C-alpha cells in the first residue's frame, strides 16, 4: 500500500511541484498518472523511491513512513521498487546482460541465481539471445525493454515508469504498455506516468490526473 | 561472509579493469607515485648502508683505562677480575707499560721519549662494550673512574656520538621528506579518484537508483586507490634496486682506493613490504578523502 498524506513538494526558489496531494494506491493496482507537462507527475513518482523528499506531508509504503527516511535506509527501500525513468539511463559500456545483472549484484544474489534471473528477464521483454550485445546496438524500443528488464529483474513489488512510451512509435509503445500490463497481472503494483492513457486502456487502469501540482481526478 | 568476499572480489576486479583500461594513465600515476616514494625509500636504504659502512670501517669503539703509575700487580689483578665480571663488556685487553713503550717506539715516535730517563707510560686496560650505545659508554666510564688504582679513563666514543647525531639528523630529514612526499602521494590519489568518480558518474547514479549502498559504490574506488598505491610502491622498489645496481660498481671502486670493501645492500623483504604497504595505505587515504568529498553530493 502506498499512501500520500497531504504531500507538498516545494523546490528551492519557491516553485511548488506538488500541492497537498493525498491518495492511496492498493497493492496490485495499475495506476496511470496523467497531466500536462509540468503537472507534477515525475515529481510524484520520484517521491516514492525517495529520489525527491517531500517538503510537507507524509508518504507511507507498506506501513513504513519514508518521508524522513535516513540516507542509509534509502538503498533498501529502492531495492523493492523497479524504476524506469524518463531517460533510459543505461550503461553503454556494459553488455545488455551486465546492465540487467547490476541490480542483482547490488542485492547480493549468487552468480548462478543472477544468470537464471537475467535469462528470464530477457525472455520476458523479448530480448533473448542478445545478452552479449551492447545497448548502443539496440533500437529505442529495445533499450526501453532493457530498462524494464533491469527494473523488474529484482522482482520488486512496485514498478514505477515515467513516460516509458515517449519517443516510441505506436507499435513499439503498445508492446511496452503490454509488458507493464502483464507485470500488473502478475500482482505487481504499477504506476505509469504517460500522456497516452489509451495505450493502457485494455488493462482497466485507475486514472490519476494532476494539474499544476494539484490532484484533479482519481 | 561469502557475499561480502564476493563483493570485494567484484570491486577488486572492477578496479583492476579500470586500471587496465587506461594503461597510459595508470603508468603515469604509478610513475609519479613511485618517484615520490623513491626518494625516501632510497634515502633510508642509503642511510642504512652508510651506518653499516661506518661501523665496519671504524671497528668497535673502545674505552682505555689508564692506571696509576704506582699501581701494583695486586691492584691490576683486582681491576682485571672486576672487568671480567662485567656482563656488558665484549673484550678486555691488558697493555703493560712496557708493551705500550714498545708500540710507541715501533710506530716511529720513540724519539719523543728519548730524553726521559724512565718509562712514563702507565699500564692500561683496553675494553670494548657489547653495545654501541653512547649513553652506555658514558655510564660505564663514570663507574670505572671511581675504581682504586685508576688514574684516567679515556672514552673513545666521540665518533660514535658524532655518527649517531649525523644519522639522527639524516633520519629526521628523511622523515620530514617522507611526510611531504607522502602528502603529495595522497593528493595524487585524491585527484585520480576524483577523475574516476567523474568518469563513472552515470554508473554511480544508476547504481544508487537501483539500491546500491554507499559502501557498495565506494568499494571499487578504495581498491583502485590501494592498487594504484601498490603499483607506485613497486615502481619505487624497482627504482631503488636499479639505483643500487648502478651505484654498486662505482662505490666499490671508491672503497678500494681506501682499502675497504664496500658492498651496497638493497632493501630486505621487510623493508620492501613496508614500502608497498605504506604506498597502499597512502592510496587508501587519498581515496577515502576523495570519495567523501565527491560522492556525498551524488543523489
Give a brief rundown of this model:
The complex is a heterodimer of chains A (218) and B (299). Chain A has 218 residues and is α/β, with parallel strands linked by helices.
- Ranges of chain B where pLDDT stays below 50 over 5 or more residues in a row are none
Strand order of the largest sheet of chain A: 6-7-8-3-9-10
What kind of assembly state do the chains in view correspond to? heterodimer
> Average pLDDT across residues of chain B?
85
Q: Indicate the proportion of strand residues of chain A.
A: 25-35%
Strand order of the largest sheet of chain B: 2-3-1-4
Strand content of chain B: 5-15%
Instruction: State the total count of DSSP E strands of chain A.
Output: 10
Radius of gyration of chain A: 17 Å
Q: Largest chain-chain contact?
A: A-B, 22 and 18 residues
SSE ordering of chain B:
HHEHEHEHEHHHH
Please state the structural category of chain A.
Answer: alpha/beta
Description:
The complex is a heterodimer of chains A (about 220) and B (about 300). With about 220 residues, chain A is an alpha/beta fold. Chain A is about 30% helix and about 25% strand. Chain A is built from 6 helices and 10 strands, in the order βββαββαβαααβαβββ. In chain A, strands 6-7-8-3-9-10 form a 6-stranded mixed sheet, sandwiched between helices. A 4-stranded antiparallel sheet of chain A has the order 2-1-4-5, covered by helices on one side. In chain A, α3 (about 95-105) packs across α4. Chain A is globular. With about 300 residues, chain B is an alpha+beta fold. Chain B folds into 2 domains: about 1-55 and about 160-295, no CATH class; about 60-155, 2-Layer Sandwich (Alpha-Beta Plaits). Helices cover about 70% and strands about 10% of the residues of chain B. Chain B has helices at about 1-20, 25-60, 75-85, 95-110, 135-145, 160-200, 200-210, 215-255, 270-295, and strands spanning about 60-65, 90-95, 125-130, 150-155. In chain B, strands 2-3-1-4 form a 4-stranded antiparallel sheet. In chain B, α1 packs across α8 (about 215-255), α6 (about 160-200) packs antiparallel against α8 (about 215-255) and α8 runs antiparallel to α9. The model of chain B has no long low-confidence stretch (mean pLDDT about 85). The interface between A and B is medium-sized, with 22 and 18 residues.
Amino acid at each position: 500500500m502506498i499512501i500520500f498524506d497531504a504531500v507538498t513538494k516545494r523546490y528551492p526558489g519557491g516553485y511548488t511541484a506538488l500541492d497537498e496531494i493525498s491518495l492511496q494506491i492498493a497493492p496490485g493496482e495499475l495506476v496511470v498518472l496523467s497531466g500536462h507537462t509540468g503537472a507534477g507527475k515525475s515529481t510524484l513518482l520520484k517521491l516514492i523511491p525517495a529520489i525527491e523528499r517531500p517538503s510537507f506531508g507524509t508518504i507511507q509504503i507498506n506501513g513504513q513512513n519514508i518521508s524522513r527516511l535516513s540516507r542509509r535506509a534509502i538503498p533498501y527501500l529502492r531495492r523493492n521498487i523497479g524504476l524506469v525513468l524518463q531517460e533510459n539511463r543505461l550503461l553503454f559500456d556494459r553488455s545488455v546482460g551486465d546492465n540487467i545483472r547490476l541490480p542483482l549484484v547490488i542485492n547480493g544474489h549468487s552468480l548462478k541465481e543472477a544468470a537464471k534471473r537475467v535469462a528470464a528477464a530477457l525472455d520476458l521483454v523479448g530480448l533473448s539471445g542478445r545478452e552479449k550485445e551492447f545497448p548502443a546496438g539496440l533500437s529505442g524500443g529495445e533499450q526501453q525493454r532493457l530498462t524494464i528488464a533491469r527494473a523488474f529483474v529484482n522482482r520488486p513489488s512496485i514498478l514505477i515508469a515515467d513516460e516509458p512510451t515517449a519517443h516510441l512509435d505506436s507499435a513499439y509503445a503498445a508492446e511496452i504498455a503490454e509488458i507493464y500490463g502483464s507485470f500488473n497481472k502478475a500482482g505487481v503494483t504499477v504506476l505509469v506516468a504517460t500522456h497516452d492513457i489509451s495505450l493502457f486502456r485494455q488493462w482497466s487502469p485507475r486514472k490519476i490526473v494532476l494539474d499544476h501540482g494539484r490532484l484533479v481526478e482519481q | 561472509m561469502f557475499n561480502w568476499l564476493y563483493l570485494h572480489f567484484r570491486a577488486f576486479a572492477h578496479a583492476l579493469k579500470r586500471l587496465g583500461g587506461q594503461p597510459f594513465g595508470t603508468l603515469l600515476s604509478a610513475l609519479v607515485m613511485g618517484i615520490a616514494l623513491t626518494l625516501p625509500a632510497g634515502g633510508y636504504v642509503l642511510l642504512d648502508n652508510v651506518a653499516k659502512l661506518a661501523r665496519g670501517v671504524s671497528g668497535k669503539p673502545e674505552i682505555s683505562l689508564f692506571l696509576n703509575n704506582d699501581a701494583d700487580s695486586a691492584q691490576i689483578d683486582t681491576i682485571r677480575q672486576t672487568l671480567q665480571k662485567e656482563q656488558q663488556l665484549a673484550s678486555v685487553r691488558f697493555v703493560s707499560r712496557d708493551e705500550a713503550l714498545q708500540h710507541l717506539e715501533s710506530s716511529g715516535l720513540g724519539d719523543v721519549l728519548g730524553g726521559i730517563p724512565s718509562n712514563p707510560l702507565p699500564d692500561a686496560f683496553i675494553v670494548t662494550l657489547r653495545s654501541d650505545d653512547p649513553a652506555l659508554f658514558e655510564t660505564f666510564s663514570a663507574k670505572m673512574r671511581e675504581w682504586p688504582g685508576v688514574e684516567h679513563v679515556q672514552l673513545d666514543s666521540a665518533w660514535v656520538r658524532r655518527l649517531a647525531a649525523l644519522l639522527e639528523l639524516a633520519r629526521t630529514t628523511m622523515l620530514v621528506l617522507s611526510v611531504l612526499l607522502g602528502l603529495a602521494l595522497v593528493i595524487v590519489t585524491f585527484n585520480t579518484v576524483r577523475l574516476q568518480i567523474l568518469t563513472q558518474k552515470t554508473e554511480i547514479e544508476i547504481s544508487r537508483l537501483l539500491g546500491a549502498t554507499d559502501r557498495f559504490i565506494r568499494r571499487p574506488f578504495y581498491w583502485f586507490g590501494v592498487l594504484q598505491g601498490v603499483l607506485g610502491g613497486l615502481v619505487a622498489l624497482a627504482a631503488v634496486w636499479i639505483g643500487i645496481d648502478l651505484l654498486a660498481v662505482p662505490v666499490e671502486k671508491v672503497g678500494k682506493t681506501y682499502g675497504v670493501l664496500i658492498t651496497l645492500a638493497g632493501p630486505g623483504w621487510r623493508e620492501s613490504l613496508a614500502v608497498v604497504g605504506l604506498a597502499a595505505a597512502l592510496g587508501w587515504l587519498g581515496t577515502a578523502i576523495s570519495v567523501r568529498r565527491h560522492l556525498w553530493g551524488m543523489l
